[in-house]
Each structure stands twice: as structure tokens, then as C-alpha cells.
């Protein structure tokens, strides 16, 4: 996606996002000259993105004017595409979800049917203040080219230039990423700089993980990192939609479908423990339909399998963003570009 603003504007907006600031704060934190800050601030006030709001006393000298971000001055849309459902949320510049729409998708939907349904939902929430649309889609896909390679479990999707198709139909900038990546973007956005090394485990119709390593979303060389559901956990295990056998996703889904909740949550726990050993993450966020239906069981199942050393604490939580986490994160990808600080 194109950068929507000049660099200095984006830096100033990014700093204003974290709370009321003065022009002096902005100059100190951005490294811009006071003259440059004054110019940028005047332009942003003119565009309705910033507003003067009160003053701060600084001891000597006259009180300094505080500047605040106008959260609803621009909006973003984010979508989660599951194998059977499309969810679209509307967020403001603060990343707060203002509205949502959900529609079922037909079995084995093809690209034209999907784009038509996406366009219908987006048109229902269309607003002059929209910056763009983020799509959190089933992988594998390439987030740089916007092409879906072979979405697992969706047979009519092979090398589909989805970003281009969506932009043509919507007339808005579109950014595409894997659902697990947009979900970890949402958590990173919510928790801020304190979240450095985390995994988000998304258990929906499939099972995948989003990785935040050293403060950055880790996508790998081909946006294929996090296809953790398709690593082998049982040598003689059940067949998987990916064509292999004994994948974590297949073993989990089989247990869940046969009503073995303890077995299903234990598989996720064992898998997460492996991730903790491999990556040394200290935060685990659980998300997805299966988790949200039985949050306490999944929390307990995962906590029971984690390393027990007291110097290796791991915080496990269920995402407070609930069903919106993937779609909200997709909107936040759009906002991140607006702020010029993609993570
Ligand atoms: Zn598999």
C-alpha cells in the first residue's frame, strides 16, 4: 500500500497517538526542529487530524498548548476471512472498533463471489473518512505482492491477485496479510512497546500462529511463518487438509469434533510449549472461535503444558478483542501505514 502521508506528518501523528502532547514534546521526541513541528502541526490542525485542547504549566514561562489526536477524523476497515464467514469492522485512528458486520460465505467460495460479498459489506460502512481496507486472509499468501497462493482448505484459490481485485472493486487502498499476522498486529497495537516476544495462537477452522519477535511481526521469507498447525505431532495421526498426516491442526480438530475437549486443549498446550522452547516468548495470546467457545478450558490446557522453571514465566491470556481480533488487526495494518510505523 502507498504511504498516505509525508514522513514528518506521520511521525507527529504517531507521537500524538499515545496521548496529549505539546509542540516542545513533539520536537524533542521526533528530532524535528521546532519550526518544522510548527508547520506540520498547523497543517494537521487544518486537516482536522489534531486539535488544541487545554494547556500544561511548565513552571517558568507561559503554559504550553496541548495537542490531541482527533480519533474519528479518519477511519479504517478491517476484514477477517474465514472458510465460512466474512467479518468486517470499522475502527477509528485510535484503533477502537466502532461498528461491525458479519456475513456467511458459501462452501468453497471463489474469488469473484468473495469480492462481491466484501464489496457489499464495505459499501454498508462506507465513509468519506476511510483510509483503506485491511484483509486478514487464510494463508498461504504473499503480503508484499497481495497474492493468495493456495489458501488451505479453499480449493478455488490458486495464485489469486486478491489485493488488486479488491482495490478495483472497492476503489480504496487495500492491504493483505495472513489472519494470524493481523491478529498479532492487533495485540501489539493494544499492548504497545511492552509486548516484545509473543505468539498468538488462532484456533478457528484451522490452527495457526502469529509471531511477534523482538518487537516486530515475523513473517518469514514468503509470508509463510506461523504455519504451525501443519507441523507433525503424531506420526500415525489423521489426514490433514494440507495433504499430510498427523498435523497439529488435524489432531486437534479430530479431538474437538469427537467431543474430547481435554484432548483438544492438551494438543494446543503441547504445541505452545514447543513454541516457547523454540522462540523463548514470554507472552501467549489465545484466539479464535474454538478458544472463545471454551476459554477457561484452553487456558488451563495450555498453562498445564508450559515449562515450570520459575525463571521462565510465560503469561497466557485469551484475547480481550474476542471475535474481532483478526479484523481489527487488519484495520490496524492500514492505520500503521498511516502513522508511518509499520511493525
Ligand atoms: Zn496439515
From TrEMBL:
HTH marR-type domain sequence ranges: 14-51
Coiled-coil region: none
Record-level Gene Ontology MF annotations: DNA-binding transcription factor activity; kinase activity
Domain of life: Bacteria
Pfam short name (any one): MarR_2
Swiss-Prot/TrEMBL keywords: Kinase, Transferase
Protein name (database record): Putative NBD/HSP70 family sugar kinase
Taxonomic placement: Bacteria, Bacillati, Actinomycetota, Actinomycetes, Pseudonocardiales
Amino acid at each position: 500500500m502507498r504511504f498516505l502521508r509525508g514522513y514528518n506528518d506521520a511521525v507527529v501523528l504517531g507521537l500524538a497517538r499515545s496521548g496529549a502532547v505539546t509542540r516542545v514534546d513533539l520536537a524533542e521526541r521526533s528530532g524535528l526542529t521546532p519550526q518544522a513541528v510548527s508547520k506540520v502541526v498547523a497543517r494537521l490542525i487544518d486537516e482536522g487530524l489534531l486539535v488544541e485542547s487545554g494547556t500544561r504549566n511548565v513552571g517558568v514561562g507561559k503554559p504550553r498548548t496541548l495537542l490531541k489526536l482527533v480519533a474519528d477524523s479518519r477511519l479504517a476497515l478491517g476484514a477477517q476471512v474465514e472458510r465460512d464467514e466474512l467479518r468486517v469492522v470499522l475502527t477509528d485512528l485510535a484503533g477502537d472498533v466502532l461498528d461491525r458486520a458479519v456475513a456467511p460465505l458459501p462452501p468453497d467460495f471463489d474469488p469473484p463471489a468473495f469480492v462481491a460479498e466484501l464489496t457489499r459489506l464495505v459499501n454498508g460502512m462506507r465513509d468519506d473518512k476511510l483510509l483503506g481496507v485491511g484483509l486478514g486472509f487464510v494463508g498461504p499468501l504473499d503480503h508484499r505482492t497481495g497474492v493468495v497462493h493456495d489458501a488451505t482448505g479453499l480449493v478455488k484459490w490458486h495464485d489469486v491477485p486478491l489485493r488488486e481485485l479488491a482495490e478495483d472493486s472497492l476503489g480504496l487502498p487495500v492491504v493483505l496479510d495472513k489472519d494470524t499476522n493481523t491478529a498479532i498486529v492487533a495485540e501489539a497495537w493494544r499492548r504497545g512497546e511492552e509486548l516484545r516476544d509473543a505468539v498468538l495462537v488462532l484456533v478457528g477452522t484451522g490452527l495457526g500462529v502469529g509471531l511477534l519477535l523482538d518487537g516486530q511481526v515475523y513473517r518469514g521469507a514468503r509470508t509463510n511463518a506461523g504455519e504451525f498447525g501443519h507441523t507433525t505431532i503424531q506420526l500415525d495421526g489423521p489426514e490433514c487438509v494440507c495433504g499430510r498426516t498427523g498435523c497439529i491442526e488435524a489432531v486437534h480438530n479430530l479431538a474437538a469434533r469427537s467431543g474430547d475437549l481435554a484432548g483438544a486443549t492438551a494438543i494446543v498446550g503441547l504445541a505452545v510449549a514447543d513454541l516457547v522452547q523454540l522462540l523463548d516468548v514470554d507472552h501467549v495470546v489465545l484466539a479464535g472461535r474454538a478458544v472463545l467457545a471454551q476459554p477457561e478450558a484452553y487456558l488451563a490446557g495450555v498453562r498445564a503444558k508450559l515449562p515450570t522453571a520459575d525463571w521462565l514465566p510465560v503469561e497466557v491470556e485469551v484475547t480481550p478483542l474476542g471475535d474481532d481480533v483478526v479484523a481489527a488487526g487488519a484495520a490496524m495494518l492500514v492505520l500503521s501505514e498511516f502513522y508511518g510505523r509499520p511493525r
